[in-house]
Each structure stands twice: as structure tokens, then as C-alpha cells.
Amino acid sequence: MKKHDQNERDLKAIDTNTGIASIFLLVALAFLLSRGILPAWLIRIPEALVPPLAVWLDLIFNFIKDDLHLIDLTRAISGGLEVLLDITANLLYGRNRWPKLGPIPWAAVCASFVVLAYYLGGLRLALLALVTFVWTALIGQWKIAMQTMSVLTLAAPFAVLIGLGLGITAWKFRTFDKSIRPILSVLQTLPFFTYLLPAVIFFKVGPTAGAVATIMFAVPPMILMTTLGLRKVSTEIVEAGHMSGCTRWQMLRRVYIPAARTEILVGVNQVIMLCLAMVVLTAFIGMPGLGAKLLAMMGSFKIGRSFEIGITIVLFAIMLDRMSKAWVMKQPVHFDRGTQWWHRHKYFLLSLLAFVFFLLLSQLIPILAEVTRKQSFSQGKEIDKIIKGFLAIDSIKNTTEWLRWFLNVKVLIPFRNSLLWIPTPAFILIIMGLGWYLAGKKEALIAGLFFTIVAITGWWDRSVITLYTVISAVVLATFIGIPLGILAARSTKWSSRILLACDTAQTFPSFIYLIPAIMLFGVNDVAVVFSILIFAAVPLTRYTIEGLRGVPPEMVEAADMSGATRFQKLLTVQLPLALPTMGVGFNQAINFAFFMVIIAAFIGTQDLGQELQRTLAGTELGKNFVLGMNVSLMALSFDFIITKWTETRKQALGLG
Amino acid sequence: MSNIARSFLLSSIVAIAPVGVIAADSSDPIVIPIHNWSSQIVMSNVVGQMFEEMGNNVEYITTDSQAVYESVRLGDVALELEVWEGAFGASFRTALEKGGLHDAGDHDAVTREDWWYPMWTKDACPGLPSWEALNDCAALFATAETGSKGRYLDGPVDWLKHGQERVEALGMNFQVVNAGSAAALWAEIGAAEADRKPVVVFNWTPNFAEAVWPGEFVEFPEWVDGCDTDPSVGPNPNALYDCGNPAKGYLKKAAWDGMKDKWPHAYCALTKISFTNPQIAEMAKLVDTDELEPEEAAVEWLAANRATVDPWINACK
Q1: Contacting residues for B259 by C-beta, under 8 A, at least 6 apart
Q2: In Å, how far is A55's CA from the nearest CA of chain B?
Q3: Contact A610 B190 (CB under 8 A)
Q4: Is B306 within the bounds of a domain?
Q5: Domain harbouring B145, CATH code
Q6: pTM to 2 decimals?
Q7: Among A50, A105, B3, B190, which residue carries the largest CB count within 10 Å?
Q8: Is residue B27 packed enough to be buried (19+ CB in 10 Å), middle (13-18) or exposed (0-12)?
Q9: Are A90 and A102 in contact (CB under 8 A)?
Q10: How is residue B314 annotated by DSSP?
Q11: Domain check: are B62 and B102 in the same one?
Q12: Do B101 and B134 fall into the same domain?
């Protein structure tokens, strides 16, 4: 009976939500219909009312930097970081610094990793590690790959430790948790161009700035996962800990953290993936290695060799992802009392042995130490020819030519112009109306506030163009990603294949998509939307597959027994139940699109990304920050609305 | 005099002697920034290897070519070897105003940045390179989204090329589209190459593209001083930017203000350094066409050009 009441109340709430939402939309409609007679100040905020935010921010930055001497502190930190980076740099690629031992021969690193991979995940994982390292060495990229790794081997552990520390603090103190959450949300949506200038100014251009930017980018999920894991620890375990008389430190060390192991290790996995996602972007601020080489290759139109670098990054990402996941799955092994130490550490010793063996062997066989450029198997020119040949096939040319015409002239340009035509207040009202309808009062008001701030900053038109690109790309991605996910979800085999393709598409450096996109469609909005689309379709497909495969089997059986056809079953049972999960994917797709739309400035856009790129030239920190905040505010509005919507749906379906 | 005393005296003479002439260079590494185009990377390696011959430590750091001026200003990197008048003039001047870096002299090389087309375009529009002929052929460059107007792909907005203003000032039937990066320009030319589609894009020299796609600059009314500030200059009496870009733009070196005191010898050599257009083209070619790694290319280039480089080093010993 109680449950029934609850449902009724929910339904009522939805009714009033719909009512208020339609009032908002009707007012917006009134604005649209009367646009011709509206005074100019109701169409766009007048220039005179735009506050000089950029100037104020510049003053604040300078005050913090010079008067509060923050720069001295950050420079001291980067000095310490540099010492550590010099050590890894020396060991991994032989930079001329203390302890002057390196570079370690590639074969030795490879052998010890293969043993480690075997220990974690058996033969298949060992093979993956072997392929990754041998590929990197033979293609002649060992040195640059190790330049990248010399930074990541420090950035990733730092991100994990900082995340763990902050996560534990947030779990202990509610107020800290509450105050840190909005900061984390902003950090996760802030465009990377906004990290770039402060990192260079405060932490010195070079590997240090690269490491700091990477840590900033990778830390948020670690914090969130740590807090989540610790909260989930069951009371029985905690009581058991108390009963055995643990001190507070022992409770944390021996009870909470081991019990939250799975979540914490998922956080570690996220950190690793995000570190690799930043490899190319941080090259703009002095991160050496694969990213820097990729940018140089693209600058001289060597698609083939950029492609090879992309494959290396993907292989490393997948290998480290699988290894860290295998680590999550692997439960700690407990040995009987009295087991010999060499038995306990069998794999560690084996790994060390392989390392030493190949270290010595490479003294005799130089190719095991280093593969030079002339010996390498790089096929850059041949891949160039294949890609160019593929793009020159008549049927492909005709299709893209038609698509370019159709999408540009019939879809994108009219859509953009109509969004720009909408008066600012009406636009905000529409967003609020939709927010109220999908989520509720709180989310609608937040979205309204955020979009009003965007309007006041005076970058409205560019923000609308950014939004237009994001919406177009996500809508088109839905047409591709969801059907693909539905098809793949039919069989386990295809699910895992498509999920692997998703992993690949996600870790393949987004920069490499830009070139084929331009070659197919030219510098225009179609190329921009296309490059975002690839990225945005990934979470849609992934969560569709996971949503559909997560539908409880008894529900599917019930549908089968009542004689539903495959299509009916999909439409009436599976999709509705998978919808909340798909909503998460949709949310991620929007976030990815906001991330990528800024990078697409390298193709050529007229949105916030282009303006952000321009601030790099004048090092206008204040303006840069205002623009970045606009992107962040818009992305957060969508994030709040969709998150709330998926939660409500989940509860209504009894899945939460 | 005992041996010890003699050697003490000698060493103090040695220690004092150079002070009068020029102090020794610091043993801290000279940090040289490298960007994402080959001539700059090779040139940085060439200069770096010269500094090493002079006994200095050198390190290279990859940075963004616009944001680098902030780093030079702060002394995080010591110098910048390619300051292009057109592309980086604005960033360089902003940093100059803020203080911390200075102009370390021009290269002999001149730079040109303007509307450019690959040779095959001329087959379709034989009147080129004159800009009037280009304008008559505008329809050849039309695309789906530009309608009847021709499409001109300009450089990134932050290079401040004023393509739009020029089209208006000269009454041309073109629409200006801004590419987002150099890579976008190359992709556009590369895509047109297969079926020799006519394109007109922004390009510059010295540059690797000359070797890959032979082409020519469009000849606009010649640059006259004041064309960008005084409307009466140039063919259109009522508009700015009614001429082509200067055909001889500068290519500068910039140095951190502290470099002079910290590495006086290297700084002295930096002010002497001056590369010519063919030398820069050769550096780019070693990497772009011959597929050498930049460090190897620098070794090779140095070996072949000792006559140019040695006087710079010797003058600053």
C-alpha cells in the first residue's frame, strides 16, 4: 500500500513538472513569435552591460601569482618534481642526469612486463604485453614511448596517492566532501585549453607542466571512487574490525581499504586511462615523447607515421587497462604458514630474472638494446599511400561530396542559424523548460542560472555555436551508436568485439581523426561534427550494450513466453529497462562532445574553442578562463539534468 | 717559490683572467624550445649542437609555438629561433611589451605569407598568378557551402591574416574560411591532390610544402607601407588591407633577457647566427623528404655547412 502511495506522489510530481515546463516553453514561444518587435536588448545582452570579467580575473591572477607569491610555491613544487622526473628520464631513455644508468634496454623492460602480465592475467595478457613492447621497439618508437612513460610513471602514482588522500578525507568529513564535489565537476568539464596556460606559468614549460596537467586531469575519478568504495564497506566488517581492537589507523589500513579494494582499483584503472588520454594534449606544454612526435608528424602531413604513433598509444592503453583490470579481479593469495619466501614471491623473482637475463643479453646483441631508425619497420610512406588511395576512391569521394552538401546546406547551417536566431531569454527559458520536464525544479533553476551567466559574459553567440556543434554531433552519434549497440548486444561474441573497438576508438588520439575528417569533408562544420561524432558514439554504443545485456533474464523469458516477436521484445521490454543505463551513456557522450568540440578548433570552427585557441597567442589568462568556464557551465547543466533523469527513471523501474 | 705557491698563483691568474674579457658560460643547460614543423626542429638542433661544441649543456623542450613567448619571458626557455613576422609577430610583440625577452636579430632569410595555389590549379585557371584572374575564376573554387562564391582557406585566426578584409577591399567574389591549424591546410591540399581539384589556400615560405606540392603565390597589388593603417594607400582609396602581404617579412630570433649574462658565449653566437632561405629549406628537406630524425639531420647539415657555422662559433670563443 505504501509503495502505491509513493508511486502516486511521483506521478503527481511528474504532472506538476510537465505543467511548469510547458509554462516555460509557452513563454519562450511568445518570445519567438514576437521576435520581430522585440527591442534589441531582449534579443542579446547589450555590450554595455557585459562586465569586464576578463580584466578582473587578470587582476586576481596577478595578485595571487605575484603578491601572494603563489608562483614561488608552485615553482618549488615543480623543482622537486623535476628531480624525480630526471631519475625516470635517465632510467627509461637515458637523459643525461643522475643516476646516469639508463637507458634500460627495451628487451629487459619487455621481458619483465611479460612475466608480470602472465602473473596477473595468464597467457593472453602476456601475449598482449609482448605484442605491445615488440611493436613499439620494432617500429622505432621505443625512445619516444619511454619519454612519455617517464612522465606517466610518476604522474599516475601521484594522481592515485592524491586521489586516495582526498578521497579518504572526503569520506571522513562530510563538509569537505560537499565543498570538493563542485570543484571536481568543474575540473572534469573544463576544456583542456584552460589548464594549459596556468600549467605553463605556474609549473614551468616542460615535463613538469605536463605531469601537473596530467595529474589534475586524472585525479577526480580517483577521489570519487575512493569515497564511494569506503562508503560501501559493510557494517559487519567494520564491527569485526572494532571487536579485534583495531586502532583508527589500523582500521583504515587493515579494514576499510582492503574492503574497498575493488572500487579503489577501478579508480586506479581510470587514472591510467586518463593519463594516456592526455599524452597528446600535454605535448602543447612541453610533455616529451609520443604526443610531441605526433604533432610534428601531423604538421608535416605524414599521416602514416602519425597513425603508427596512434597504434602505439592504443596498444599501451589497452595493455595497461587490461593489466589493471586483471589486478582488480585477482584476489589476494594467502599462503600457508611456513611457505618459503621464494615461493611466495615466485613471479617477482621470475620477472627480475628475466630482466637481468635480457639486460646482459642486450650487451651482446645490440638490437635488443636499441632499434635505430634505419633498422625499424616503420611503414609510414606505405600507410600514407593506402590512406590517400582509399580517400581517392570515386564512390567514397561521391558519397562524402553528397554528405558534405546535404549535411551542410540542408541540416547543419539551417540548424545553426535558427539557434542563433533565438533571442537569449527565450533560449534560457527553453533550456529551463526542458530541464524542469526531464529532471525537476532544482536542475532547471541551476541550468537557468548557468546559461544566464554564459549570456552575461558576452560570449553568447560563440557559446550557442559550440552548443550547436555538440548537439548535432550527439544526435548523429545516436543514430550510429545505439543501433550498433543493439545489434552487438545480441551475442556475447559480438558484444566483446564491439566493446574492444570502443576501447580502441576512445584511446586512439583524437588528433588523428582530424586529418581524415578534413580530407573527407574539407574544413567546415561537417568535418568538425564528424570528428566529434566518432568520439561521442563510443559511450552510446558501450552503454547500450551494457544496458541491454544487463536486463534481468527473467524479464526476457517472460516476454518470450507471452509470444513477443524479437522486435516487440526489444521495444517493449529490453529498451525501456536499458534506458537508464543508456542515459548514462548519453550523458558521457555529451561530455565527450564538449571535450572534443574544443579540440576541433584545430580543424577550424567559429565557436568558443577558436577563441580559446586565440587566447594562447596573447597569453590572456583572464579571457581564457572566462571562455573555459562557459564551456564548463553548459556541460554541467546538461550533466545535472541527465543524471537526475536517469536516477528517477531507475527508481521508477525498480532498478535503483 | 715552492711548487704549491706557484701553482696557486697560476691558478689565481687563470681564474681572474677571463673576468676582464667575458665570463664563462653557466653549466646549466640552455633550454631550446621546439615546435611542430621540421625546419624549426632541425634548426634548433643545429644551434643546440653548435652550443654543445662550445662546451654548453643543451636541452630541448616541445612547446606550443604561440605560448612559447611567455616561457621565454620567464626564462624557462632561453631563446626562440624562428619568430615569423606574420604568424608570431603579435605574440612576440605582446611579450616584448611585458618585458623579459628581446629581439636577438634577424635571419638573412625572408618570409612570405600569402594566398597560394598548387600548380595544378593553374591548368584550370591559366591567367594566374594575377589576383584579377583568380577573381574571374572564382566559380572554380566554389563549394557546396559557399554557393556561387569561391572558397579561400585562410590560416588560423590567431595568425591575424586579414583575408576577409582584403576580399572586401578588393571586391573579390570569395568567401574566407579559417583553418584551425597548419595540419588542416595540408589535409585540404592533400585531399585536392588526387583529382587535381583547384584550391587556393594560405601558405608560406620557407616551408616543406614547396617540395611536396609545387605552387605559386597569388600576385596581389604590391605591399606599400601604410596599407594596413592608411585607407588612401593601395588601389582602393577607402579601404585598408587592399594589397598583398609584404613579400619580404622578417624571420627573427628572440632571446631571454637573462641569457646574455648566464651564457655570454652562447648568446654572442646566437646574435651572429643567420640562416638563408635555401639553408632552411635544406634542413626541412632532410627530415621531410629524406626521412631522417631531426638530430641526425642536424648532424648531417652541420657537417655540410662548416664554412657557414665556424665563423659564428669562432667569433664568440
Answers
A1: B30, B78, B79, B266, B267, B270
A2: 16
A3: no
A4: yes
A5: 3.40.190.100
A6: 0.88
A7: A105
A8: exposed
A9: yes
A10: H
A11: yes
A12: no
